[in-house]
């Protein structure tokens, strides 16, 4: 805490809050607490730091608001990409926002995850800029004011706790932080390596169309349920619209050697497809291919789309694919 007490100024507080609202890893809450402590000591103005914090929030959130207006679902996919189920993250966020409207911005900053997706959702769902700014400023005032007030009331206690935790924090960084950081970089390395390994296994839309027309044993898995809110979105005829978590839950998947599986998502860089392909290869599935360029590339070639998808159980039986436990429709979540 002593570090933040020394370094907190009006410009630093603005930059910290602005960066935090842009989803950058900046400890803005600690700067808010320290600014409250400095306000209690008479070194900063309580009203001044509150105005600076609210300004930083509203400006950063306005960037996401405009991005939601322009790019819509692409922005939400970016923000939800690292969740366990991006499609569910987007769908649940939309349902909550449509139910509460821009009033949700008054409490969103207190709810992890909801804070990040509310501004682009407001832009995507057609909220007016004046109402967005008004409610966002209200929510920012409540959020920033709460932490500033805590810093104002408990400055001495916070500083004492910080000093007592200094030694323990260093120990925890060594014992937990370094292994976690190493694990993170290892997972990133393995993902990049898997993407590189899968590049030779990419298949173009024209090649896939040719295989499907020749009645070869090609199974096509549509991942839009995982990647996006897929209601009303057509896909490749004959594909299975499957949620990848269903694949990860299987203890065993057996695919005949003459069967090939093609998976596709919407993103051109096939990031989602690569993650799913990696999971399938862990099950020992070698005949897995990624559609190059995703659904957009298929559509750009002028190939047909369909609103009707193959029944997963029937398609798995046709291809001779066995799963343990057996496939069952995913439960509908509220």
Shape: elongated
Oligomer: single chain
Query: Could you name the ranges where pLDDT drops below 50 across 5 or more consecutive residues?
Result: none
The tally of beta strands, per DSSP, is 7
Helix/strand order, N-terminal first: HHHHHHHHHEHEHEHEEHEHHE
Properties at a glance:
elongated; 61% helix; alpha/beta; 2 domains; Oxidized Rhodanese, domain 1
Please, could you describe this protein's structure?
- Helix 13 links the parallel strand 5 (260-264) and strand 6.
- Helix 4 packs across helix 5.
- The longest helix is centred in the middle third of the chain and has 44 residues, at 155-198.
- Helix content is 61%, strand content 7%.
- The strands form 2 sheets. A 5-stranded parallel sheet has the order 1-6-5-2-3.
- The chain has helices at residues 2-7, 10-21, 28-40, 46-71, 73-80, 86-100, 114-124, 129-153, 155-198, 205-213, 224-227, 244-248, 271-282, 294-300, 312-319; strands at residues 202-203, 218-222, 240-241, 252-254, 260-264, 288-291, 322-324.
- The chain folds into 2 domains: 2-153, no CATH class; 199-324, Oxidized Rhodanese, domain 1 (3-Layer(aba) Sandwich).
- With 334 residues, the chain is an alpha/beta fold.
Topology summary:
Layout: H1 2-7, H2 10-21, H3 28-40, H4 46-71, H5 73-80, H6 86-100, H7 114-124, H8 129-153, H9 155-198, E1 202-203, H10 205-213, E2 218-222, H11 224-227, E3 240-241, H12 244-248, E4 252-254, E5 260-264, H13 271-282, E6 288-291, H14 294-300, H15 312-319, E7 322-324
Parallel strand pairs: 1-6, 2-3, 2-5, 5-6
Antiparallel strand pairs: 4-7
Helix pairs in contact: 2-3, 2-4, 3-8, 4-5, 4-7, 4-8, 5-6, 5-7, 6-7, 9-13
